[in-house]
Amino acid sequence: MEHIELFFKSIFIDNMVFATFLGMCSYLAVSKKVTTAVGLGAAVIFVLAITVPLNWLLDQYLLQPGALAWIDDSTNGEGFSGMDLSFLSFIMFIATIATMVQLVEIVVEKFSPSLYNSLGIFLPLIAVNCAILGGSLFMQSREIPSLGLATTYGVGSGIGWFLAILAIAAIREKIRYSNVPAPLRGLGITFIITGLMAIGFMSFGGMLTGGDEEVKEEKTVLVQKEEIEAKKSITSEEEQKEELANNTLKEEE
Amino acid sequence: MGLLSKKDSKLILDPLADDNPITIQVLGICSALAITAELKASIVMAISVLFVLGIGNVVISLMRNIIPSKIRIIVQLVVVAALVIIVDLVLKAFAYELSKTLSVFVGLIITNCIIMGRFEAFALANSPWRSFLDGIGNAAGYGVILIIVGFFRELLGSGTLLGFPVLGNPIPGELSGLYALGYENNGFMLLSPMALIVVGIIIWIQRSRNKALIED
């Protein structure tokens, strides 16, 4: 159940393109024809399905605060359990991704030269596709609890991205025959269509929880903002009342 | 501009309008859209990219003759990742609230296409000084769009700029400014799809002013 929920959530509700705008560059650049879009989408699913679990393992056993505890043995008193290597996560994640992309490139070149030629420059650019690194970073910041769930999340996000690029490519193939105002042709209209599609995808927000969750999230954001503003106003009142105390506060800050 | 020759100043000024990284080159869209609900976040993001792209272009340009071309992407990624880690740690130290708002998008500067795009297209073939100017110019062009989008989304979405209420007081009971006349904030501007549409409109305006940019 957990897996199914996360799977659909990552495809529709947290869709890479429509909810977080990840991978927009290749999404815009490669979506002129459906066939190339399918190829790139498939490559993204594949790379995400491998890198997210891989980076989950890295995060869990190397990078998190206290993750190195498994190195400690009982005979040695002082150990690695206190170490926090999380500042290295960007470099570790991107290195994993770059290696995997290189691998995918070799495999595709070997088994499907036509796909390799049509993807052209964009295959190496998967390494710098925000969707791939974004998948790993969201996996880290959302604290996905198990390896299985991380894999589900990777595959789900990949499929979400695939759906998005497939949809926009199909629309762009048709829109070529429409009478779009000249300055909007090409890039401009693609942006606006994507915006409208994103509005459509927002309606998936209530799919799993009957609409409660989305509302809650927005509310908490609002509450946090209000809290921050309230704090600011309190400090400004204090400024007027107690200048001395506030000076020390400022120094501390 | 005594310091810069005409050619050099073109490097900085071109990306601001007619060769803008976002609206013309279509690079670096992801972060441009996701964090522009607030003007402050947009400005910080613009400065971060300015730093990373300026320094990164110089570093890559200095190393351009010793990087084997087969592994250049990995080398570039390592350089960017190191610079982004610096930005991330500085933000966490001096602007913690803001770094929470930006969340993963600071990390995503690494895969910002502008950076890789400029490394590939410019820094690998030009001298450090010219690469530096190109980096600054492109990052500024990116920042300009970010700030325009952030300005309109925050102004129309929450009626504030940089957190200060500029359209009056919206709290019921003590209404003032525009709100006293019945104005309402358009909360839709704060949601992500509107970022796309705002950028679409910017492209529309820019291209109808300069017909040479129109695509067939």
Describe what this molecule looks like in 3D.
- The complex is a heterodimer of chains A (253) and B (216).
- Chain A is mainly alpha-helical.
- Chain A contains twelve helices and no strands.
- Helix content of chain A is 73%, strand content 0%.
- By secondary structure, chain B is mainly alpha-helical.
- In chain B, a hairpin with a 2-residue loop joins strand 1 (160-161) and strand 2 (164-165).
- Chain B has helices spanning 6-13, 29-34, 39-62, 72-94, 96-102, 104-107, 113-121, 128-158, 192-209; strands at 160-161, 164-165.
- The model of chain B has no long low-confidence stretch (mean pLDDT 81).
- Chain B has nine helices and two strands.
- The longest helix of chain B is centred in the middle third of the chain and has 31 residues, at 128-158.
- Chain B is 60% helix and 2% strand.
- Chain B has one domain.
- Chains A and B meet through helix 2, helix 3, helix 5, helix 8 and helix 10 of A and helix 2, helix 4 and helix 9 of B.
- The Rg value of chain B, from CA coordinates, equals 19 Å
Tell me the overall shape of chain B.
Answer: globular
Total number of domains of chain B: 1
Name the average pLDDT of chain A: 76
Main beta sheet of chain A, described?
none
Overall geometry of chain A: globular
Q: Please write the string of helix (H) and strand (E) elements of chain A.
A: HHHHHHHHHHHH
H/E element order of chain B: HHHHHHHHEEH
**Major sheet of chain B: order of its strands?**
1-2
Largest sheet of chain B: 2 strands, antiparallel
Distance between the termini of chain B: 37 Å
Could you give a short description of this structure?
The complex is a heterodimer of chains A (253) and B (216). With 253 residues, chain A is an all-alpha fold.
Write the layout of secondary structure elements.
The complex is a heterodimer of chains A (253) and B (216).
Chain A: H1 2-13, H2 16-20, H3 24-29, H4 34-63, H5 89-111, H6 113-119, H7 122-125, H8 130-141, H9 147-175, H10 187-202, H11 212-241, H12 243-252
Helix pairs in contact in A: 1-9, 4-5, 4-8, 4-9, 5-6, 5-8, 8-9
Chain B: H1 6-13, H2 29-34, H3 39-62, H4 72-94, H5 96-102, H6 104-107, H7 113-121, H8 128-158, E1 160-161, E2 164-165, H9 192-209
Antiparallel strand pairs in B: 1-2
Helix pairs in contact in B: 1-8, 3-4, 3-7, 3-8, 4-5, 8-9
